[in-house]
Amino acid sequence: MTKKIAFKTLGCRLNLFETDALVSECTKMDYHVVDFSQEADVYVVNTCTVTNQSDHKSKQVMNQMKRLHPDSLKIVTGCMATNYKEQLEQSGKVDYVVDNDHKTAITSLVENWFEGRTASPDSFEKDLFGYEPADTTFHTRSLIKIQDGCNNFCTFCIIPKVRGRATSRPAKDIYDNIKQVIAFGYKEIVLTGVNIGRYQDEDTNFEKLVEQILEISGDFRLRISSMEPDGFTDSFFRLFAHPKLTPHLHLCLQSGSEDILLKMRRMYTAELFEKMAVELRRLYPDFNLTTDIIVGFPGETEEKFQESIAMAKRLQFGHIHTFKYSVRHGTRAEHMPNQIPEKEKTRRSEIIRHLSDEMKLAYRKSFVGKEQTVLTEQFDKRGFAIGYGEHYVPVVIRQKGLEKNKFYTVILNGIEMQDEPVLTGLLKTQ
Ligand code: SF4
What is the C-alpha to C-alpha distance for residues 340 and 325, in angstroms, rounded to an integer? Predict the structure, then answer.
């Protein structure tokens, strides 16, 4: 009998890493991994709880699962499952609620179920890093989890509650994992975690870890996913001179107002952030600096909101992820005075979204006439290969007969407006 299993992942790259590893493990155990819309024996939802919207989306998926697949095994895991564990266990919507600490036990739970046995997820050992290197995943890039949890306790953030204290994976395991996925044929490695800048394993901090990874032989490049602008030294930026480290960093600013950053209990000032950004651009003029900005944090007057806009305009980000401040139960900001009305948050997020679109277009236009090394991921309807350059810009290579998952040097010659501006180009000829 073919055992069919389906996965749905909400939220961040860390969740994607964990789902990829579970998918790969299930494939090795001869499960048939099917799309979530198809019939399966088992459904697993890896949830997110970073905002109210994430909770809402997670609930929607669970209701759909319950309605469409009453007889299948239904497992909910991830941050929303961890945040509302008791309620979900009592809801009767799912068979298992597996918190982040026990996610690695999911395949054992499923095996037990097929053999007619039930087990409590909490009866398994807590294991944050016990994931096998994934050879079969949904992505061209290989996500590598290096760290979990956070000790910063920003006043708006629920993550320390659902992902626990900052814990770093042994450096040796990370190097081995990366060597294995390179051997599997992956060409881009993405380091992920909750607060990766705070990575520390004995005397190996984040900078040293990156340095060591760049020494690993093989035809690959390294990308750093989202980072907090704290925990790394000034010399960190020199690492980006290495040809294998992609010149792109997503540094979460959150606000351009010193007062709001203090209220958020962020570990840096707007002035320091700006200094870092200017230094990065001095060293690497084309560097792609992207960021997150929260609008409508309690106490954010129009004037303080304008400080975020002014800073974004000065720093010209390659892209800005905009979040409307979302009250999270159990965080300090929940009880702060001067909460901003939803309508006003929406107005402010529209303004930042519009600004981000302008900056993204300007940044991508600046690459026309320049070169990018594109890792091909898929083909569009015209048969053209599409992928990302090292600066994390999307590119369509207007030539046929190319291969997937391969690096191509491309001369960029224009912009195509799709859902977002996409660069176009042709292969560089010798
Ligand atoms: S550093 Fe990031 S993960 Fe940690 S509490 Fe702050 S926002 Fe949350």
Answer: 9
Report the C-alpha dihedral over residues 406, 138, 387, 223, rounded to 10 degrees: -80
Expressed in angstroms and rounded, the spacing between residue 37 Cα and the centre of ligand 1 is 33
Ligand 1 atom nearest to 163, measured from its CA = 3
Give distance in angstroms: CA of 194 to centre of ligand 1.
7
Protein residues whose CB sits closer than 6 Å to any atom of ligand 1: 150, 152-154, 157, 159-160, 194-195, 228
Read off the pLDDT of residues 11-59 as tens digits, 9 standing for 90 and up: 999 999 999 999 999 999 999 999 999 999 999 999 999 999 999 999 9
Of 13, 49, 53, 14, the closest CA to residue 324 belongs to 53
pLDDT band at 430 (very low <50, low <70, confident <90, very high): low
* Residue with CA closest to ligand 1 atom 6: 154
- Per-residue DSSP letters for 264-329? HT-SS-HHHHHHHHHHHHHH-TT-EEEEEEEES-TT--HHHHHHHHHHHHHHT-SEEEEEE----T
Query: What are 375's strand-pairing partners?
Result: 388, 407
Instruction: Please name every residue paired with 191 in a beta bridge, in sequence order, or none if there are none.
Output: 144, 224
Q: Would the pTM count as exceeding 0.70?
A: yes
The Cβ of residue 278 has, within 10 Å, a number of other Cβ atoms equal to 12
DSSP secondary structure of 32-56: EEE-TTS--SEEEEEE--SSHHHHH
The best mutation among 152, 232, 297 to test binding of ligand 1, ranked by most ligand atoms within 8 Å of the C-beta, falls on: 152
403 CA distance to ligand 1 centroid (A)? 39
Instruction: Identify the residue whose tokens are 């299993």.
Output: 5
From 48, 151, 154, 252, mutation site for ligand 1 pocket: most ligand atoms within 8 A of C-beta: 154
Pick from 426, 422, 421, 419: nearest CA to 400: 426
What residues contact 357, with CB distance under 8 A and at least 6 apart?
Answer: 420
